[in-house]
Protein: Alcohol dehydrogenase-like C-terminal domain-containing protein
Amino acid sequence: MKEAIIFAGPKVIIQDVDFPALPSPNYLIIKVIVSGSNPKDWAIAERGDTIVDYRDGHNAVVAGLQNAIGTNEKLKYAFDAVSDKGSFQNIMQVMDHLEGRITVVLARKKYEGIPDTVDKTFTQVGRVHSSTYPGIKGEKAPVGPLGDQEFGLLMYKFFERGLAKDWFSGHPFEVVDGGLRGIEGALRNLKAGKASAVKYVFRIEETENGRKNHL
Structure:
């Protein structure tokens, strides 16, 4: 099987490693056919109601949010899909601290800067997959007969219909030649800002033979 080791630079070394032995029948190994990368940025100017480019810095983000909301208006609802690197602090500068509601996605954070008067909840993908998901300390329990698993079921059917009717599509992507050996060039493109709002996809079976490494 193939192993890609990424070093600073970026520099990528591809190695052949032995197939691991399973410790018991209760374990399984997933064969990866393709691997993908997240884009360096998500800016697509022609999509959405308002695009605020985070690359311009925190002050510009806050100004852009306020401009989108309105000069004398306050934000009531926010879904912070980043929840890091100043994202929720920026949101708090334009949010209504008495009636505002925000949902965040990273569990092991203190979220200093979000006042207790703001209703903070967590959005976790694990809740859709399991009714025994442990949850997060201090999180408010959902109220109502339907939970996250039911919500997930409906949303996936909704996505399925969108794909079938062609009004919903996946994220733009580009297949990189050479399988895993294309990772280094793709990382250099990301670092140089040559790829915007596009995912790179690597077909592992296209990887040439690497050097052997017995673990």
User: Anything to note?
Assistant: The first strand starts at residue 2 and ends at 7.
